[in-house]
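FW: tagging you since you asked about this chain on Friday. Here's the raw sequence from the shared folder, copied in full. Didn't touch anything.
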Amino acid sequence: MNGGPALEARDLTIKFGDFTAVDGVTFSVERGEIFGFLGANGAGKTTTIRTLCGLLVPTRGEARVGGLDFSDGGRGIKGKVGYMSQKFTLYNDLTVGENLDFAAGLRKLDPAYARRRREELFSLIAFDRPLSTMVSSLPGGVKQELSLAAAMLHDPEIVFLDEPTAGVSPASRARFWELIREVTGLGKTVLVTTHYMDEAEQCGRIALMRTGKLIALDSPAGLKSAAFPGPMVELDFGGPAPATALEGLGRAPGLLELSPHGMRWHAAFAGGREMEAALAGLPAGTGRREIPPSLEDVFIRLVEGAER
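HL: got it, structure written out here
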């Protein structure tokens, strides 16, 4: 295994004709890190991952994955990485054993090595069903775990997970993230995209993308403090918020963000003095409590707020 970062991208740009899907992205990921990508649909996350998996060649810029570049068209990189797509990638009309044998064949793995890896991965995901089990009969969470096993069958250094828990139960999502931590404990590097903010909180660092550009990169705590340097308050109007109250808040000096969260509203300010002045004009009886910002608040401010 080479030293240095697990992967590096410098001015990475990917175009499809006149459309720029990824625009001058620069970042690096350390070995053993859980690195997250956040962004709205179409932000460029999946295109970035597909490129770093060796499936697309950069239009401009540089990338090194597992110490390798694209001088061979990305062929060497493919052996360094495992990729699990946001759609379940195993075949429902095949058995568990047939699916994993097929995955091993695609990688041209030695049969004895593939069997040994299969048993290691079954132990990792605690899979104890017969190999003859039809994949179509398995619960969604178990299918996702098997898909992870298939992506790691060739023992990659870096594992890319694109929306790996979409559509599974909260319990299965929690279990899958336990597996992610176990995988990094084995020395692997994991890059993951997710729309679940509670999952993103578990990443060591997060790259936030918007319209193909990298707009922020930091730890969850760092993103929150950078986006919200002042206080945040949750407001409860006891029902629908009066339009006049929202209009007044919207014009308040020092307001950074005002967004609905169910029947309540989050209001962030540049400082405590600005917050107190703005809240003084709210209707009597308005509930208020200071709260820490969440990654959802960061996403609303940096991504949705900019698009608004």
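FW: The chain has two domains: 7-219, 229-292.
HL: agreed, and The radius of gyration is 23 Å.
FW: great, closing this out.
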